[in-house]
Specification:
The protein is of the alpha+beta class and 153 residues long. It contains three helices and seven strands. It starts with a strand and ends with a strand.
Length: 153
């Protein structure tokens, strides 16, 4: 599959569609009362602070991901999503590589992320990419279904 990764405005129709699909899937996987979908604000992915990327193949948007700097040394990956029909075809891996490249461009030395314990595909992808479990950080502290991971660049 020929995958192109494009920086896109998080407020675009394509970005909104992918984020809605991600939120629907998260609601299905985590129906518990109090389950939370952590958000990201447009200014957090503005140039020099982060990026929102969309993966395309054959002109179709198949996935997305964001990175935001959370301190001078650290960036966080957020809103990673791949359409179910495109999973297992390298879309997530390609997005992750480009998000790490954005992290290096931002000058950070470490990338962290949060996913959920029921997102086995995500846990496998991140583990294969060299991410390891770390203690919960920031807004994820106190959420027992959250799994936080990190990687030195």
């Amino acid at each position: 599959m020929d995958i192109q990764i494009v920086r896109e405005d998080i407020a675009s129709a394509t970005a909104r569609r992918l984020i809605r699909a991600l939120n629907r899937e998260l609601s299905e996987r985590y129906p518990e009362e109090g389950a939370k979908h952590f958000r990201i604000d447009p200014e957090e992915v503005a140039e020099e602070r982060g990026a929102f990327l969309v993966a395309y193949a054959g002109g179709e948007a198949l996935g997305c991901g964001a990175i935001r700097r959370i301190d001078p040394e650290t960036a966080e990956i957020k809103r990673m999503y791949v359409e179910p029909s495109a999973r297992g075809r390298g879309v997530g891996r390609t997005l992750l590589v480009d998000l790490e490249t954005e992290g290096r461009r931002l000058g950070v030395k470490r990338i962290v992320l949060e996913t959920g314990e029921r997102q086995l595909e995500a846990l496998a992808l991140y583990g294969q990419a060299g991410f390891a479990r770390i203690p919960a950080f920031g807004e994820y502290v106190g959420f027992p279904l959250s799994v936080c991971m990190g990687k030195e660049l």
